From TrEMBL:
Domain Amidohydrolase-related, residue spans: 66-393
Protein name: N-acetylglucosamine-6-phosphate deacetylase
Record keyword Flavoprotein present: no
Keywords assigned: Carbohydrate metabolism, Hydrolase, Metal-binding
Family, similarity comment: Belongs to the metallo-dependent hydrolases superfamily. NagA family.
Lineage, highest ranks first: Bacteria, Bacillati, Actinomycetota, Actinomycetes, Kitasatosporales
One MF annotation (Gene Ontology) recorded for this entry: N-acetylglucosamine-6-phosphate deacetylase activity
A matching Pfam family: Amidohydro_1
This enzyme's EC code(s): 3.5.1.25
């Protein structure tokens, strides 16, 4: 109870802003669901996007810029020095602030492997921030994952996905659990996928050593997301295609991609977009607390992590340990290195994750009636402004 109270008391420190008068943003390239509008406009009425404004409404000229929907990150462990798994209430909010300043207006807090009772306590506490609107939900990445593909998770804390324990975590989140990553090939895995699907929680296949056939079985049982595709799973083989092929080929699966230049070769990202299509990709950060904070020694759950030149690796063993990525960097890399169409990037970074969260009626695109969540980028795709619910987080200069 003390942890919950501390989180609730600190939630007010993340500013939401009050409703304001009408404002018209003009002159920019505006990315809409129907395409990009040159010299477009976005009308803000209080916290929402509007279809019209009074004649007296002030305007702001953003010629030479892009306006895109606010970014939605469904897989994020922290930032700004704050960890969602082990940090204090203020640490969590610092992480939220850090990513918000990089364009992520909607964020799901991801928890790494820990003791079940600790995760129960943590989920219950974080649910307060979801209810207050600072977080969009909770993602459990572990402990129900394969020791063969554990990545930066503590092996001694891993366990089989017992449906009763999975249900215990979901219940602890009090309606705010959005996703559970698990290795469906483990005992109890398929039953746990079915349980999650029945309760409206995303079952994500990841940190898995599953075969192609086992992955197909999990998808048929209700799995809908691939946790950071390619990473922490068997590589594609021509005789044993493994989970990658099963996840890419099935229209029911959205594949997460970490576009930081470390987790994926550009050709792998291109393969995913080519096979799955832009409508089935979700850019994520998988960020840990070093994101937006700098190099140094950190903790990811119980494990020590060294961040050198922006790359996070376990101190012992050297496995990649999440990322220091922010979604504005992922956007810019997708546009300038991967040469993806801007509309496709917006789908992957805003539209698709919003749909996964069941929140596309409110966020994910620049349409009247939706939250006024948007990002302003210059012609080279550097972030220049962020608005969340009608209030500037970073005001364009």
């Amino acid at each position: 109870m003390a942890a919950r109270a501390a989180l609730a008391d600190s939630a007010a420190r993340v500013a939401h802003g009050a409703s304001g008068d009408s404002t018209i943003l003009t002159g920019a390239r505006v990315v809409l669901p129907t395409g990009t509008v040159e010299n477009g406009q976005v009308i803000i009425e209080g916290t929402k996007i509007a279809s019209a404004a009074p004649d007296s409404a002030p305007s702001r000229d953003l010629t030479g810029h892009w306006i895109v929907p606010g970014f939605v990150d469904i897989h994020n462990h922290g930032g700004g020095g704050g960890s969602f798994t082990g940090g204090s209430a203020e640490d969590v909010l610092q992480g939220v602030r850090t990513h918000r300043e990089h364009g992520t207006t909607t964020l799901v807090a991801s928890l790494v492997t820990a003791e079940i009772d600790y995760l129960v306590q943590r989920a219950s506490a974080l649910s307060e921030l979801v209810q207050q609107g600072d977080l969009a939900g909770i993602h459990f990445e572990g402990p129900f994952i394969s020791p063969c593909r554990k990545g930066a998770h503590s092996e001694e804390l891993l366990r089989h996905p017992d449906p009763a324990e999975v249900r215990k975590l979901v219940d602890a989140a009090r309606g705010t659990a959005k996703m559970v990553t698990l290795a469906a090939e483990l005992p109890g895995g398929i039953d746990s996928v079915r349980l999650l699907a029945e309760h409206g929680v995303i079952a994500a296949i990841g940190h898995t050593d599953a075969s192609y056939e086992q992955t197909v079985e999990a998808i048929n049982a209700g799995a809908t997301v691939a946790t950071h595709l390619f990473n922490a799973m068997p590589p594609l083989g021509h005789r044993s295609p493994g989970p990658i092929v099963a996840l890419l080929e099935d229209e029911r699966i959205t594949v997460e991609l970490i576009n930081d230049g470390t987790h994926l070769h550009p050709a792998a990202l291109e393969l995913a977009f080519h096979r799955a299509g832009a409508s089935r990709v979700a850019f994520i950060t998988d960020a840990m607390d070093a994101a937006g904070f700098g190099d140094g020694r950190y903790q990811l759950g119980p494990l020590a992590v060294d961040v050198i030149d922006g790359v996070a690796r376990l101190t012992e063993g050297g496995s990649i340990a999440g990322s220091t990525l922010t979604l504005d960097t992922a956007f810019r890399r997708a546009a300038t290195v991967d040469r993806l169409p801007v509309g496709d990037i917006v789908q992957a970074i805003s539209v698709n994750p919003a749909k996964l969260l069941g929140a596309y009626d409110r966020i994910g695109s620049l349409e009247p009636g939706k939250d006024a969540d948007l990002v302003v980028l210059d012609e080279e795709f550097h972030l220049k402004g962020v608005m969340r619910q009608g209030t500037w987080v970073i005001e364009p200069k």
